[in-house]
Amino acid sequence: MTDTSEDARRQAIRQALSRSVGTDSEAAALAAAFFGLWQQTAGKLEPVIGARGVDVLFGRALHLTARRFPWLPTTAHGNSAASLYVFQTCLAGRSAPEVSDAGETLLLAFTGLLAGMVGESLTGRLLGAAWTLRDPDTQPQRQKQA
Amino acid sequence: MNPSVTIRRLATGVPGLDAILGGGLPEFSFNLISGPPGSGKTTLAHQIMFALATPERPALFITVLGEPPLKMLRYQQQFSFFDTARIGEAVRFVNLNDELATGDFEQVLERITLEVAAASPALVFVDSFRAVLLDAAKSGAQSGNLQHFVQQLGVQLSAWQATTFLIGEYHAPVDDHPVFTVADGLLALRQSVHRNSMVRQIQILKMRGQATSPGVHTFRITGAGIEIFPSAVVREDSGNTADRSLSPARDGHRMSMGVPRLDAMLGGGLPSGFSLLVAGPSGAGKTLLATAFLAEGARCGEPGVMVAFEQTPSQSLNPAIDDMVRAGTLGLINTRSMDLSMDEIVHHLIEMIHRMQARRVVIDSLSGFELAVAPNFREDFRESLFRMVAALSSLGVTVLVTSELEDRYTDLRFSPYGSAFLTDAIIVQRYIEINSGLTRVMAVVKVRDSAHSSEIRQFSINGGGIVIGDPLQGYEGLLGGSPQHATERPDGAKRRATAPLL
Fold first, then answer.
1. Which of B75, B186, B222, B269 sits between 20 and 30 A of B82, alpha carbons compared?
2. Low-confidence ranges of chain A (pLDDT < 70)
3. Residue B257 to residues A62, B272, B290, B296: CA-CA distances in angstroms?
């Protein structure tokens, strides 16, 4: 995984969340947007890699994310739905920047793990339109535009 | 109008597979790919899928337990046939782990049916199907139900106008499972490890509606995927010369050996299309003779191919061979692998013969060849040699095979493999002792259906190659290694000297 492709995923997450919340930067709205994007992501992946595959990656992503956010649980809780519930509970009462940062980090870690397993190209294919990952070759230009 | 149905054959994209299937995979057939773990089942399935799948002819790859899909996708991507760009429109992966977890395999069938109905795929793969059946068996399902389940799946998938594959760890033909009866095609993969070599093999146990290539065929998995080497089939010869369309060979033309006086010993050169065995001890000059044969071919506009097993990486090849390779008049297959099959070597050899339009072939040597084939094949080496010589003969090339043969002075042998009868001509080289020195001698033992010299000629090797001398006259017991003068007795008759000549 290169920095460029990680940047591309980061941008894709930000764009997707921004599309969802618009100008509303309330913590609750951001959390809802994050969960919406997660459900889209899981919905795309579960038929292909199975719910268990999604659970395993989510558990690991949560573990990695918790290193930066001590207020997050460090271990997965059964399946991704249970872990997500715990994550959701932890977000309650956090500030908008914290919610945004933690949500982005978690999704970035999750997609990073997926890309590490099956490659950037296939990750893009599997996640589909919801993510619109960018071609690394065109990244510098797009970064400028951003 | 012909009322019978025409079955379309699909090109599988797996080199060699269409040939052993008898012309490709029948469309809408229901196939089983069986084999132990690691035998290449999933790779074979993916290779076929990526070769055939298009947006108009989409493929559905259903994973059930077995290999986790994440791992499967990770490793299958390493093959060059895996085309990420086609995932989505042409290829779709579906995981049925959750359905199977319920223990209700009817639900698995229903989900498969739903997925097939939704996607209308032309190709359906279920990997690993064995897992479905084992899980169903553990859940207490009756074998009758299982049979019904498998039959339903087979019938249903066929009715959806899809070519289907079930991939599983079956042990055909030992497994007595109804799926073997239902399936139209059975592709059995296996692998065996012997010492430090691994041999992969495939056998088409069944393919309805077409004649498959019988027997076991070896295959190799490389970065490009699976490549199958169909075993060389010995064609029956009807005796009708018109059948030998591929063989410009036995037309009476004689080929020069490139060694002065040797052509005369052979009765005017080596008949075109013949196979010649050059047997002799180490250092006698077998490779040099083979090189002269190839160089003469290059000079006469007859390209050659050489399969060399003798050289080690630190040794450079004979400069004359190097020159011919550089000039494009010689194709060289130089292998030091220890796990080859005869079929793989023959496959590469035939490919190069066609590419070079070669007329002369050298295999140097049988001893190296035997070492290069995997231990599993050494037991059948003689039979494999027979098939190879027959395959080359059918191409019309003239073949020279060298064979390391240690000098024995108590018996007369021409081949360590008892394979002398396989070739049309034999030249034997030996060392003999004369005047406390080793002298090389050479004789033509056999040229089928042709008169030839029976003289034992002394020969030497100098910078220019092999120099054949005159017959060793006046000696007896040459083949015993220590010849003796046949001296004249006063009465005119010859008698043997009592002591060896030193």
1. B186
2. 1-4, 23-24, 75-78, 129-146
3. 76, 11, 8, 7
Q: Are B254 and B271 in contact (CB under 8 A)?
A: yes
Phi and psi torsions of B419, nearest 5°: -105, 10
Dihedral angle computed from the Cα positions of residues B353, B358, B364 and B368, in that order, rounded to the nearest 10 degrees: 0
Question: Contacts of residue A47 in chain B, CB cutoff 8 Å?
Answer: 93-95
Residue pLDDT, tens place only, B38-62: 899 999 999 999 999 999 999 999 9
pTM comes to 0.75
Beta bridge partners of B204: B187
List, in sequence order, every residue forming a beta bridge with B487; answer none if it has no partner: B495
Task: Give yes or no for a contact between B266 and B452, defined as CB atoms under 8 angstroms apart.
Answer: yes
Half-sphere exposure of B478 (CA within 13 A, CB side): 19
Q: Which two tokens stand for residue B102?
A: 């319920």
- Among the partner-chain residues B71, B93, B98, the one whose CB lies closest to the CB of A48 is B93
Contact check, Cβ <8 Å, A125/B70: no
The 10s digit of each residue's pLDDT in A24-61 is 678 888 899 889 999 999 999 988 888 888 988 998 89
Element (H, E) at B499: none
User: Using alpha carbons only, what angle is made at residue B317 by residues B314 and B320, rounded to the nearest 5 degrees?
Assistant: 155
Cβ contacts of B381 within 8 Å, gap of 6 or more: B342, B370, B373, B417
A-chain CB neighbours of B87 within 8 Å are 122, 125-126
C-alpha span between B281 and B287 (Å, rounded): 11
Q: Fill in the DSSP letter of residue A10.
A: H
A51 contact residues in B (CB cutoff 8 A): 97-98
Instruction: Answer whether B304's CB lies under 8 Å from B294's CB.
Output: yes
d(CA B323, CA B306): 13
A98 to chain B, minimum CA–CA distance in Å?
31
Q: Determine contact: A125 vs chain B, CB below 8 A.
A: yes
Angle at the Cα of A28 (from A40 to A47), degrees rounded to 5? 15
Name beta bridge partners: B467. Answer: B460
ipTM computed for the complex: 0.74
Helices A80-91 and A96-118, packing angle to 10 deg: 150
Q: How far apart are CA B483 and CA B253, in angstroms?
A: 37
Q: Cβ separation of A121 and B73 shorter than 8 Å?
A: no
Contact A80, A63 (CB under 8 A): no
DSSP for residue B493: -
A43 contact B CB<8A: no
Residue in the structure block whose two tokens are 């969340």: A17
CA B359/CA B246 separation, integer angstroms:
12
Using CB atoms, which residue from A51, A52, A122 is nearest to B73? A122
Looking at chain A, how many residues does it have? 146
Average pLDDT over residues B188-192: 90
Instruction: Please say whether the beta carbons of A61 and A67 come within 8 A.
Output: no
Instruction: Say which DSSP state B233 is in.
Output: P
Q: Comparing C-alpha atoms, which of B415, B172, B400 is closest to residue B307?
A: B400
**A119 interfaces chain B, CB cutoff of 8 Å:** yes
Spatial separation of the C-alpha atoms in residues B41 and B39, rounded to whole Å: 6
**Beta bridge partners of residue B427, listed in sequence order:** B278, B444
Model confidence at B256, in pLDDT bands (50, 70, 90)? very high
